[in-house]
Structure formats: structure tokens, C-alpha cells
Amino acid sequence: MTRDTRDTGDTTDRKSDGRKPPPDAGRRSERSRRAIYDAALSLVADAGYQKTTIEGIAARAGVGKQTIYRWWSSKAEVLLEAFLDLQDQAAEAAGGTPFTFPDTGDLAADLKLVLRATVDELLDPKFEEPSRALAAEGVVNAQLGAEFVTKLLEPQLQLYVDRLRSAQAAGDVRADIDPRIALELVVAPLAQRWLQHSGPISHAYTDTLVDYALSGLTPR
């Protein structure tokens, strides 16, 4: 039988004394972290990297600056982590599966497809300003530059390497080609134009890069 505690004053089985349960610190921290990511990305887009400060990020995120310093030591670290999170969000929006380089058997078509998507991302204001800021800061901040390459750039470049090796195995690319160098024939010119504003970037431009590069990579 279930004990009746109404008349005895026994409160042992009561689940609550009327007070609200304490807030979930983990959820609160995650909300703060997300707000900081969003604030850092939007502030860089609005004001530029040089004018972005920890204080400005904290104010826009609605947190104290000590909250930021508890997790990061500089605005560069905040921005890098926020940008990596932005990439993760883009992957989730695309279905939650990691990006894989297409392998349709047509190397030129596959390269053009990926490079066109890259152009679209580079011209998207949401990605462009943080990307430029991180690339520029990485030149003068060796530690950040190394993290940028290791965590963001190198995994993407490896996808090109894997696709070129697949093309070598199929006989579509010369066996003596080093894929890690070969990929730079299409990636490096695009990056140089974008970073230095030395010329417009477009789908037509990257299509031409692929055509020119493959004329030197295909078997003679």
C-alpha cells in the first residue's frame, strides 16, 4: 500500500518543496558559447577584424568579458572556433553528413562542381569576412595560422588529393603526378585572387582553371 502522508506531516515522499530546480549550468554555458560565436562572426562582418574586440563580442553576446576569457585567450581564438562551428552548421544544414568529393568518373566535372561551390562560399558575406580575417591573422600569428591550416584547410585539401589519386588509378591523370602539388594548380590561383583582390572570381574563372590544369595533368 502507498503511505498517506497528508495527515502525518511526513514529507519524505514529496518530490519538491516548492522551489524551482537549479538551472542547468551545461545548457546555460552552451547558450552563452553559441551567443559568443554568433556575436564574433557578426561583429567581424559589420566592423572588420581590426575593430573587433573581446569587449565588443561580449557586449553583443550579452555576456561578461570574463566569460569569454574563461574559454579563449584572444579574439582570434574565438573567431577560429566560431568559424569552425559555422562550417559544422553548414554541414548539418546539408543533411548532417560530412562533405565528400564527388567521384562521377569525370574528373573535370567533379573539380568544376567543387570549385563552383567554393566560389559561392567565398562570396557569401557570412563566410567571407571571417575567412579573410583568419587568413590575414594567420600570417602574423603562427599558432593561429597552424591551427587554421590543420583544422580547416588541410582536411579540405585532402579531399582533392583523394580525388586525384582516384583519377590516377583510373588512368585519367599521369602516374608521376604528385596530387598534393597538382591540386594547387586549381586551388592556389583562386585563393590568391580572392585574398588579394587581384581579379574577379566566378564559376567561369574556376572552370577555366580546371581546363588549363588538366591539359597538363592528363596523359600525353
Summarize the amount of helix as a percent range. Answer: 55-70%
Overall pLDDT score:
84
Structural class by helix and strand composition: mainly alpha
Number of strands: 0
Low-confidence stretches: 1-16, 20-25
Radius of gyration, taken over Cα atoms and rounded to an integer in Å:
25 Å
Counting H and I runs of at least 4 residues, what is the number of helices? Answer: 10
Shape: elongated
Strand content: under 5%
Q: Terminal Cα separation, in Å?
A: 90 Å
What series of H and E elements makes up the topology? HHHHHHHHHH
Largest sheet: none
Descriptive notes:
This protein is mostly helical and 220 residues long. The chain has helices at residues 25-47, 54-61, 65-71, 75-93, 107-122, 125-140, 142-169, 179-182, 184-196, 203-217. Helix 1 crosses helix 4, helix 1 (25-47) packs across helix 6 and helix 5 (107-122) runs antiparallel to helix 10. The radius of gyration is 25 Å and the shape is elongated.
Give a quick summary of the entry:
The chain has helices spanning 25-47, 54-61, 65-71, 75-93, 107-122, 125-140, 142-169, 179-182, 184-196, 203-217. The chain is mainly α.
